[in-house]
């Protein structure tokens, strides 16, 4: 199924992270919901556990922000591309209208 999705959607750099909420109590209080201890510092709790949890949350917020910025850049590129295509098509329409007008003029002179 992944091969049918556009490359923009399949891009691993654009998969946005959901809200991270792993611990049952306050950040850094110890083991999370996954059953693991969360590491030695995390399982010990206290100031170091809270600091580690804060760093982890900061990392994921920064990562999510970078992903959103990347997605915005890609969407802006898509919009610019489509606007360019619109201009190209409008020029082609005008070209064909002029051509049809010349044909009509030429057709009118032949009937005389």
Automatic annotation (TrEMBL):
Coiled-coil features, chain-numbered ranges: 65-99
Among its keywords, does the record have Ribosomal protein? no
Location in or out of the cell: Mitochondrion
Q: Cite the entry's keywords alphabetically.
A: Coiled coil, Mitochondrion, Transit peptide
Q: Does the keyword Mitochondrion apply?
A: yes
Checking InterPro entries in the record gives: ATPase_inhibitor_mt
Q: Known Pfam families for this protein?
A: IATP
Q: Which SUPFAM superfamilies match?
A: F1 ATPase inhibitor, IF1, C-terminal domain
Q: What is its main location?
A: mitochondrion
Gene Ontology annotations for the cellular component aspect, listed alphabetically: mitochondrion
Q: Which GO terms describe its molecular function?
A: ATPase inhibitor activity
Concerning its family, UniProt says: Belongs to the ATPase inhibitor family.
What name does the UniProt record give this protein?
ATP synthase F1 subunit epsilon
Query: Upper lineage ranks?
Result: Eukaryota, Metazoa, Spiralia, Lophotrochozoa, Mollusca
